[in-house]
Amino acid sequence: MAIESINPATGERLKTYEEMPRGEVEHILDKTHEAFLAWRWKSFEERGQRMRAAAQVLRNKAETYARLMAQEMGKPVRDGIAEAQKCAVGCEFYADNAERFLAREPVKTEARESFVTFNPIGVVLGVMPWNFPFWQVFRFGAPTLMAGNAAVLKHASNVPGCALAIEEIFRTAGFPENLFRTLMIGSRQVDPVIEHPFVRAVSLTGSGPAGRAVASKAGQMLKKTVLELGGSDPYLVLEDADLDLAATVCTKGRLVNSGQSCIAAKRFIVVEAVRNEFEKRFIEKMKATKVGDPMSMETEMGPLARHDLRETLHRQVEESVRRGARCVLGGKIPEGPGAYYPPSVLTDVRRGMPAFDEELFGPVAAIVSVKNEAAAIEMANDSVFGLGGGVITRDLARGKRIAAELIESGIVFVNEPVRSDPRLPFGGVKESGYGRELSSYGIKEFVNIKTVYVA
């Protein structure tokens, strides 16, 4: 099977790669395990030196990597530069903090000495998506390698150039030759990789069906998984909200990465008292977004990553309208080349519509009107997803209470769009997955948390 790289802005076929045969995959896994056996004994200082070198490579070549992202999945260049720089920050964060996060923890018992230690486990498989083709990989790879593990990457099939570039970054930074390897394979070869005895765990970011498939196979093999899956993030706009701020936050949250983000704002749950004025300001800001060539530094939103993704999104819009939603902005596939879809707003959205029940992976906002705060919270939690969410209110104590205690998700921001940060744990509940990435919690997902008792 061939793996193709296609420019979603033009439809141009960039490059075709041959899928690795199973024998080559097994050879790479053997070599990666050998690299792990030596790497696990390296000091945190030596690991950190390599990781800081990777950060420097990322910074030095940020524009090159941004153009590669733009070509393969349509991310505007200025966003790609920011993504590469964020990867560098993530590398430095774990280089600076891994030793502290994984230090032995003494526990007072009747023993002469008892403590908990955190040991590497081996080769970890990362199954990663196309929407943040560098950040998702470094979010998994930096803590995995700093913990003393090795890693293999099965990247999304539409960003093979990004996958190979990331492998080269680690090699250029001085990591052992086979410590981080890209497997150029399709989805049908994932199960045999999970089954391989040298693969000890799996980290997946992707769709619910992909998560279920990987978790099922890993469960059969008794191997741990961390899953970061889809989201339908609710943003609550309360009656005391600053509506200019609300419109800005909601537009930014909805259109991040052309709306192709698990933690993008998707359902805007607005108290009736401010609904009309919020809609007006929100539509104005959505309409003002500069859509165009992702290679231009002026572009704020590029195409969707693939034509089939656009078709799926448009079907969700049409079905929601058929069930009673009103499309007050966008909602039509534009003429011309590329997988473009305009910033769009649906209002009068209710339960039972795709715009409410499903994840809209593209620049379509769903406005839901409610009577009061209690109804907004109930509506926010009426979802199979639980990844992110937002609360917009002038009363910070009120916002903090709702965020901390009442919204069923792994991440809630007050008066700002949800984003990932290396310093904070990242992950969800319900059908948005389980486990955590980033912070001290993320690096401890793929280690052996071992008790030692000395009598």
Description:
The protein has 455 residues and is α/β, with parallel strands linked by helices. The chain has two domains: 2-228 and 430-454, Aldehyde Dehydrogenase, Chain A, domain 1 (3-Layer(aba) Sandwich); 233-414, Aldehyde Dehydrogenase, Chain A, domain 2, CATH 3.40.309. Helix content is 42%, strand content 19%. It has 15 helices and 18 strands. It has helices at 22-39, 44-60, 62-73, 77-101, 135-146, 160-172, 190-195, 208-220, 243-255, 272-287, 307-322, 354-357, 373-381, 396-406, 439-443; strands at 2-6, 13-18, 105-106, 113-120, 123-127, 150-154, 180-182, 199-205, 224-228, 233-237, 265-271, 326-329, 344-347, 364-370, 390-392, 413-414, 433-434, 447-454. The protein has a seven-stranded mixed sheet with strand order 12-13-14-11-10-15-16, with helices on both faces. A six-stranded mixed sheet has the order 7-6-5-8-9-17, sandwiched between helices. Strands 3-4-18 form a three-stranded antiparallel sheet, with no helix packed on it. Strand 1 (2-6) and strand 2 (13-18) form a beta hairpin. Helix 2 runs antiparallel to helix 4 (77-101), helix 3 runs antiparallel to helix 6 and helix 4 runs parallel beside helix 5 (135-146). The longest helix has 25 residues, at 77-101. The chain is globular and about 65 Å long.
Short descriptors:
single chain; 455 residues; alpha/beta; 2 domains; seven-stranded mixed sheet; 15 helices; globular
- In CATH, the architecture of the largest domain is 3-Layer(aba) Sandwich
- Distance between the terminal alpha carbons, to the nearest Å? 58 Å
- Name the poorly predicted regions: none
Strand order of the largest sheet: 12-13-14-11-10-15-16
What is the total number of structural domains?
2
* Beta-strand percent range: 15-25%
User: What is the CATH topology descriptor of the largest domain?
Assistant: Aldehyde Dehydrogenase, Chain A, domain 1
Oligomer category: single chain
Q: Quick one: how many beta strands?
A: 18
